[in-house]
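User: Hi! I'm a student and our assignment asks us to look at how structure tokens line up with a sequence. Could you show me two examples?

Assistant: Happy to help. In each example below, the sequence comes first and the structure tokens follow. Example one:
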Amino acid sequence: MDDAMRNRIQRVLDGVKDPVSCLPVVELDMIERVRFHKDRGELEVVTTFPVEGKRCMNCVGINTVMIDGIRRNLKRDFQNAFPELKITIS
């Protein structure tokens, strides 16, 4: 991946914020890796969300909603920045 592509990806990652802390998700280690498959025209973003402490049912529900929202925002922002690519968020 060339530097221009890395910079474009980094700009998108810097813009997607955690709704609780308002920090970029990349700074919170919520992004495991980003792969650009030039030959397939695909950008794959693999997320990771830390699980700590006891897991009450209310917390699980709230966390699930927040994680889904972050993934939706990643998909939207990457699709806007790279309309020519297939975007996969997992």
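Example two works the same way, sequence first and then tokens:
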Amino acid sequence: METLTRGLPRRSARARRRASTGRHARIHVTTRHATEFIDLTDRLETLVADSGIRFGFLNVQTLHTTTGIVVNEHEPLLLTDFQALLEGAMPADGRYRHDDMTARTVNMTDAERPNGHAHCRALVLPSAACLNVAGGRLLLGRWQRVFLVELDGPREREVSALVFGEGRQ
């Protein structure tokens, strides 16, 4: 039984053993294609298993403005369909103000490449996914997988993954 101290519950010894904990990892990915779906699920499941977290959350976040994070089925025809949808909506050979280096004045580098299509595609995709951890495992549906979606490859990419929750006893 917990007692109240100044209006707050006092944690039992058992509750202190289950204190919140977290683990962070940066996942490096080398992409090979202009548009590509990289399945991160196995690496994320390993991170969760190694973290000692029994119940909590895994947040997966891309560190780039021309990538996205999605959860869906790893079925090649579906991924091809989604790639075609992105290409149809925001074609690589389209006209984008972002690519006009005579008009653009911010966030430019010497090695700037025309990638307005990739930025526009990324704007319709989430940059992160928050997933449940239950029983020490990443909780996904039968066909669900977690993907980094490359939209401006090939490139070197990084994903930040933070698992947080109640540790094992």
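Here is something you could point out in your write-up. The mean pLDDT is 91.
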